[in-house]
Fold this protein.
Amino acid sequence: MNRRDALTLLLAGGGAGVFAQETSRFAGLLRTGGCAVMIRHAATVPGVGDPPNFRLGDCSTQRLLSDAGRAQSRRIGQWFRSQRLQARAVQSSAWCRCRDTADLAFGQHTVLAALNSTFDDSSRQPALTHVLRQRLLDIAPGQFEVWVSHQVNITAITGEWAAIGEAFILSARGEMLARSLELVV
């Protein structure tokens, strides 16, 4: 369910029950495990991509989280804690906006290069997507991982466009089981 659908349901008067049901389903899938939840980084300062001549190791040269994005990241983490969900690993792109989203939400991250952006070089995307699909096969039932990445990577693996802060649950076979903006609505 996307944000527009959730708001439509709420405005129509029937959304609260559906909203809770979808949130419960999302948490249940994570408890079942054998999956990853892939989250697009939280809201950033205005812009697309990164400024010219950005350097991956220098956050001051990149597009960063906005105040709203930092708050959004904390809400994502709060949702996971409220559901008593503990990831076996929190992986992040090396981009500062992804690392900051992971740290604010989960208090930690490990950089996984396969989650790095291919916005400026899509020729790398098939190889990175292959690495992610292989990694999914190693996640056991009862466990899940969190992957914080970019819209281009999420689209490559799911075929869907990802909104800021949107989360997708991927099965071991790389199939999208669920998507949710409810973590941040």
Summary: The first helix runs from residue 3 to 12. Residues 3-180 form a domain with the Rossmann fold fold (CATH 3.40.50.1240). Residues 1-19 have pLDDT under 50 and may be disordered. The chain has one domain: 3-180.
